[in-house]
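If your schedule permits, I should be very grateful for your opinion on a structural question. Thank you for your consideration; the sequence and its tokens are set out here:

===
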Amino acid sequence: MAAVSVHKFADCVTCHAWSPDQSMIALCPNNDEVHIYRRSEEEKWERIHVLQKHDQIVSGIDWSSRSNKIVTVSHDRNSYVWNQETTEWVPTLVILRLNRAALCVQWSPKENKFAVGSGAKTVCVCYYEQENNWWVSKLIRKKHDSSVTSVAWHPNNIFLATTCTDGKCRVFSTFIKGVDTREAGSGPPDSKFGEQIVQLDLSFCWAFGVKWSPSGNTLAYVGHNSMIYFVDDVGPSPLAQSVAFRDLPLRDVLYLSERVVIGVGFDCNPMVFVADESGLWGFLRFLGERKAAASSAKSGSQFSEAFGKLYGQSRYGISNNSVQPSRLHGGIHENCINCIVPLNRKVGSKVTRFSTSGLDGRVVIWDLQNQEDLLDYL
């Protein structure tokens, strides 16, 4: 099995993040707290800190790998940056200037900025002002028509991709004078903060879980219509592919390499998508299964058959006593997977170990070193 360890920390886990050495994990047990656990010598997890500052559910956590800082966002419209001083974690309030919930957060590759998506149709790009000793934010406004569900930094530390419940994926420039420097390959030399580089209208439903490939040449995001989208040459003339699958929608994705993407969501089992040598993407299999998926033609007939059954049930009231999807596909999670995090976070490197958390309160660590059918793509 690809899953190497399973830990149940709570009845429900909203989000989680790992310390730089993976010896500690920070998670939200579906409330206004952040719990930090440390792995003991007996391979048991001990809760050592409880971060209490938010007033509502913590919706996003990210732990920086260089500076060892934790950033959290919440439905209370606030964000805090936590610094470890001796044995305590000290919070610093970030001025977001939001009138709706903060939904997601991610540190930039250089960790001199972080981005916050919100229900206010706004993205906050936050940076530290040394003179005033606080974190401030610049807002990308009037670009989104609904809630921003996820954010993802390009490896160049300038471009930021977002997904939104208006069904669109957008890429912005976040260049901040005095914080960023112009480097070769970091995008248009005259791009200004908040400038929209491209808008992708591939999905006609809610969009989630955008991620860049390790090289930054490709991005992927998912729609609530059981489709995943891959975009090459992000810019004025992007090249896009869409892959439809017959299972439940995804919520988040992760690039393991330029040719492997893992998707997680309502099917309670990670899905593996791979690209062939010509760059054509397709669904391979569920990670809990050893047998490869059927051909695309067969998948199409299965999709038609499934749609026919669904149509018949809704029209004639036919009941279906089939097992839950997680049991059908041999999944370890028993509820929706809402978060996937890499365990080796070096920019541009391949990923073979990652973790997932879900509404069942479990955090599962996956290792693909022994998955022979995936080694060729990694």
About this structure: Confidence is low (pLDDT under 50) at residues 290-328. The helical segments are 296-316, 325-328, 372-375. The chain has three helices and 28 strands.
